[in-house]
Amino acid sequence: MIERIVGLVTEVHASRAVLWRLVRQQLILRYRRTVLGYLWTLINPLLMMSVMAMVFATIFKEDVKVFAVFLFAGMIPWNCFNSIVVQSSGAFINNEGLIKKIYLPKAVFPLSVSVGVIIDSLLSFVALFAIIIAVGGTFSTALFFIPVAYVLLFMFSLGVGLVLSIVTVFFRDMQYVLQIAMQGLFFLTPILYKSSALSGAVADFVALNPVVPYIELFRAPLTQGRVPDESVIVQALVISLVAFFVGLGALLSQERKIVFRL
Fold it and tell me: Cα separation of 199 and 195, whole Å?
């Protein structure tokens, strides 16, 4: 197994020029012929988050600025995770023509999608961070933990994306099932509310949500000016490693079958 993983990494590294070309193509096509171009990476989430902040701050009777920082800090990792998982699920189907024409390590396709999303997320984060600070966010040395949070989130999201990209090849309805599942998962993740607001069976159920630690990885530095608790970091690290290697294992076991099922 280890030898196969090393071989896969070697193949992906050898195909890095193609990988970068796919990432670049993805970023260019997304905003081609739009007037505002990459500004949409900020405008789109900002408008959505602003409306949600005003509505839910009113519902929860919270200060709008305080709730906006709380919401933004939770939406940044969620949007990144959601985009990687949803877009990666169609990575093989959307590149069917290229996959059938030339040989490339299959990992290149979901990986290129994931890298493209991370770049988008980082651009959004820089702009949203300025807004978070402007409306009352905390600026501290704990912010240096954010790159670590992104690495852990990327590993987790890519692992999940790899599994779903393979499942979608064999079960095309997964694309539609996934959209519904992600909407449900959003409300089972403490983004609009605090985990402490829950109790009983609901709190226990939400605590099982593997996305929860990643929300805290971003929320603690941005809203509280501190590094997340060690237990949260360890939990996120374990989940990331498990998801990443499960995703790699699934890809290695099904790689030869993908072409025949496309």
Answer: 9
